[in-house]
């Protein structure tokens, strides 16, 4: 079952270069930024026969801003939680813009997660759960070079950790290194992020009375 779970659940990759940040989650001092790809989860692929996480996800998203279970209103990601973001640049492009895009995008993602957690269990629950999650990973590619980046949450601030090169598509060893890191992030998506999301958000909100889930009570 675990092998099937890993194969089906994670990872799904969707082009997101037209996915704008929902204004409710955008930091007031920044302009909206986009990223090129998102790794996300199909709740319907969860092997737990006792719970229908796909129905839970749909029920929840119908109460959220823009009817989307993410910090973006992009239709292709409306009911499948984003775990990891990817930004691609040409080798001639500067790295600062990619860093700004990832930082702004994931700051909105932290705001979205915090809002859901507060709704599920209050401020104390949100603080504990965000500390438990720890990081949101990202990948930045610039030409042949692939690099790991991440953001963490410190209070209401998002901290961007830049970037650690881990492989190049211009060499066979580099390609193997990329495949290894991507596999680790796939495992993180399924074992860490999705389990965290279920425990701290879906399972708690699913127990709430229906009147507490009406749109507008977010």
UniProtKB/TrEMBL annotation:
Domain of life, source organism: Eukaryota
Keywords per UniProt: Signal
InterPro entries cross-referenced by the UniProt entry: PDDEXK_12
Segment forming the signal sequence: 1-18
Pfam families cross-referenced by the UniProt entry: PDDEXK_12 (PF20516)
PD-(D/E)XK nuclease-like domain: residues covered: 16-194
Protein name per the record: PD-(D/E)XK nuclease-like domain-containing protein
Organism: Neonectria ditissima
